[in-house]
Design a protein that fits this description.
Layout lengths: L3 E4 L2 E4 L4 E7 L9 E6 L6 E6 L5 E3 L7 E6 L4 E6 L8 E9 L2 E4 L3 E6 L1
Parallel strand pairs: 2-11
Antiparallel strand pairs: 1-3, 3-8, 4-5, 4-9, 5-6, 7-8, 9-10, 9-11
């Protein structure tokens, strides 16, 4: 089983940038599709970006052209570069993967965007 640990969250002003990291472990990390999801208070968790083992990416419309997901398999890390942040991007951000029809999540990192 691969463990995921997120880092890089914090408080930023609207229009600012942050880079989140998702550090993984385990020998299968490089073959996994890794996603970033977020959950704001009182809202459902939503997937905002994902990246396959081959580097193909997908984004939610709400973050397209502002967020960039990337991975470094040698470091077993997936990154989420977030630019032009808005107050509505405030949420706990989680990375995840699916394996054998089960979803696995990290503990999350808080991102707060002030107006």
């Amino acid at each position: 089983q691969v463990q995921l640990v997120e880092s890089g969250g914090g408080l930023v002003q609207a229009g600012g940038s942050l880079r989140l990291s998702c550090a993984g472990s385990g020998s299968i990390f490089s073959i996994l599709t890794i996603g970033w999801a977020r959950q704001a208070p009182g809202k459902q968790r939503e997937l905002v970006a994902s990246i396959t083992s081959g580097g193909s990416t997908n984004y939610a419309d709400s973050v397209k052209d502002r967020y960039t997901i990337s991975r470094d398999n040698a470091k077993k890390t997936v990154y989420l570069e977030m630019n032009s942040l808005k107050p509505e991007d405030t949420a706990v951000y989680y990375c995840n993967y699916r394996w054998m029809r089960n979803d696995y999540w990290g503990q999350g990192t808080q991102v707060t965007v002030s107006s």
